[in-house]
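As a warm-up, study this chain.
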Amino acid sequence: MQFSFVDIANFRSIKKGTITPAQTNLIIGPNGSGKTSTLEALYFLIKLRSFVTRKKKTLISFEKNESTIFASIKNKNSQHKAGALFTATSTTSKINGSKSNLKDHLGILPMVAIEPNAQDLITTTPGSKRKFLDWWVFHVEQEFLTTYIDYKRCLTNRNILLKKGANTDPWDIQISLHSNKITSFRGTLIDEINKTFVLLTEKYLNEPLHIKLNPGWPADISIQEALKASYLIDKKRGFTQNGAHRADFEIFDSKKRHIRDYLSRGQQKVIAGVFYIALYKALSQKMNNSGIILFDDPLAELSDVSLKFLLAELGQLEVQLFITSLRESNLFELIEPKVFHVKQGLIKEAI
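Now compare it with the structure written out below.
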């Protein structure tokens, strides 16, 4: 699936933008012109949220009350129309004229955004990485959200009993069941990502890297054993130390070194780009559908060699690509993009 027509109005600095994108698209403009906002609007239509901020009010153009995004989305066999209208406090979305929800929009097509700070997924906190991973698991596992909600309820009840110094065995059983299920969901997606990630990192670094999931308790024992072993300390502290709520993932090389400890910032950014390519492929396979990759300002911190590598790999995918840049570059000739210019809040196709 890909966008065949997009109309954006009053989204950040974009006053009005109507485009008919190609398979590969390059959006050029000065800082503050609305390049990233264009990608943000495309992302919002599919995810009903921004990849930059959670403050929806800031997405609406100054002195405007609402923003709208509309698109025609098609493949060889079908076509859909999707739209979103939102204010500071509400969002109305539709697919083919009928009211829709987040799950409906996520199901249209797989989409990932490679941001300028993409390498943060390597260096950020376990909690942030866990939220990141769970967001993508939510895309492909129908039972994930209800399982996670049940898990958090059980965790809250166990912590209440810990503070009272009471027996937690009944909740330990439930937490164990839900932890194992959540870990299975997370692990399945990580395994799918690794299939591409290992191959591409070896191609780039001449050494394979792999993503390892830490479930949130010691790997050599079960979650129920971990809960039992930590009961006295948990009771003293008043909260549960082991479980799916403590999960994390790390990226290691073949020598079991964490890449954040020795790769340069530029190398980490390439590895993050590879991660998103691998994530896109995993989502595409799970959803049995092609989709879209948004790549924001790759010239900013990537060397010519690194960008050439990522563009070559992106060119091998069945994907619609949107890239932003301050300027044109010979490197973009590798992907033969359709070029758009953004200036003073207006998007126009290059002539």
